[in-house]
Amino acid sequence: MARKDNAATAANPGRLKQIALTYQMTRKADSKIGLVLAGVFIITFGVLLGIGFAIGHPVYLGILGVLLAFLATAIVFGRRAERAAFGQMEGQPGAAAAVLDNVGRGWTTTPAVAMNRSQDVVHRAVGKAGIVLVAEGNPNRVKSLLAAEKKKMNRIVADVPVHDLIVGNGEGQVPLKKLRTTMLKFPRVLTGPQVTTTNDRLRALGDLMSNMPLPKGPMPKGMRMPRGGPKAR
């Protein structure tokens, strides 16, 4: 019991510190966050306390009002903190990958499966909706990256649907803050075992590419790759 109490005591300061850091981060992007949270708490508590006086039970409704006021304040704080975080991430390289890592359970994310010299990048997520390719960068350049990666996915896992998204605020693009919602709206067509099989096949492809023996240095002039690839002995 003593160990559990000590662990709980040690965890609480960590949570409080995390909340304080989140509040400071949010305040940099949302200077009115303190007034908004105070207003939500006071209004929620005041309404329930007023109802309590009206029906003759101010104590009970007052206690309930405090609890609901804390809950409402926490919900509003969470949403505004999330909005502030997206605002700070938007336009930063790798922002889409950070969102994909927090889509939810059942999704496996592989960042930067394709990239060009201009640092336009395509990330891959696999879940019950199939394969989702998410591109971030110049809209005109990433289309070719997406097309090539989608063609490769259709060749490797032809029986799995492949969706493609471009993160941005232009026409036909998905804003960063709506990326998670958009992905969760895709219909679920795969079972858990099918998702696992798809991930295994893609992982095996990655291992094959990383372990493929390639000659070091420039290829000699006139040298051609053998047809048919290496033969098994």
Characterise the protein shown here.
With 233 residues, this protein is an alpha+beta fold. 57% of the residues lie in helices and 12% in strands. It contains seven helices and four strands; from the N terminus they run H-H-H-H-E-E-E-H-E-H-H. It has helices at residues 2-29, 33-55, 58-89, 95-100, 139-156, 179-184, 192-211; strands spanning 108-115, 121-127, 130-136, 162-167. A four-stranded mixed beta sheet has the order 1-2-3-4. The termini are far apart. Keywords: Membrane, Transmembrane, Transmembrane helix. Residues 208-233 are annotated as: Disordered.
Write a compact overview of the structure shown.
By secondary structure, the protein is an alpha+beta fold.
Order of helices and strands: HHHHEEEHEHH
Strand order of the largest sheet: 1-2-3-4
State the helix count.
7
Beta-strand percent range: 5-15%
Round the mean pLDDT to the nearest integer and report it: 79
What composes the largest sheet? 4 strands, mixed
* Derived structural class: alpha+beta
Low-confidence stretches: 207-233
Shape: elongated
Helix content: 55-70%
What is the strand tally?
Answer: 4
| Radius of gyration, taken over Cα atoms and rounded to an integer in Å | 26 Å
Could you state the oligomeric state of the chains shown?
A: single chain
Distance between the termini: 62 Å
Organism: Streptomyces kebangsaanensis
Region (Disordered): 208-233
Pfam family, one: DUF4191
Protein name: DUF4191 domain-containing protein
